[in-house]
Amino acid sequence: MVTFDQFLTMSLALPRAAERLTWETTVTLRVGEKIFAMGTPDSGEVSVKASKEDQAELLAAEPEVYSPAPYVGRHGWVLVRLAEVDPDELRDLLTDAWRSIAPKKLVREFEASGPTPETM
User: Fold this and answer.
1) Going residue by residue through the chain (120 aa), what tens digit of pLDDT does each one get?
2) Phi/psi class of residue 45: alpha, beta or left (left: φ > 0; alpha: ψ in -120 to 50)?
């Protein structure tokens, strides 16, 4: 189980990740103007950017945890049930989502720094 605050902590541990309230109730996690994850604190679910291939694998492997995200699911985004997700799996999913939108130079620097789960 992961809380919304833990989700935020994992997301904001990524380089240049920032939190912004959007659409009056949704917290979006971004690098610059690009969003890699979002959710509302009391919903128990968050949406995370993923490739269509990764989405298909996640839905097939753990349909009790993952489903297509509303509105953006057709682009690969997954809806994650925080009460069901493994924290390490969510951290990996967030990191992959961040990598997909962060500037290439920032990703290279991040990879070179060799982050560990303890530092994230």
Assistant:
1) 999 999 999 999 999 999 999 989 999 999 999 999 999 999 999 999 999 999 999 999 999 999 999 999 999 999 999 999 999 999 999 999 999 999 999 999 999 987 554 444
2) beta
What is the per-residue burial (b if ≥16 Cβ within 10 Å, else e) of 26-36? bbbbbbeeebb
Between CA 54 and CA 69 the distance in angstroms is: 13
Domain coverage including residue 114: 4-119
Read off the CATH number of the domain in which 39 is found. 3.90.1150.30
**Contact status, residue 7 vs residue 46, Cβ threshold 8 Å:** yes
Helix (H, G, I), strand (E, B) or coil at 70: coil
Within a 13 Å sphere around the CA of 77, how many CA atoms are in the beta-carbon half? 18
Number of domains comprising the chain: 1
Q: What is the edge-to-edge ordering of all strands in the sheet holding 34-39?
A: 17-22, 26-31, 34-39, 45-48, 78-81, 66-68
Strand pairing of 45-48 and 26-31? unpaired
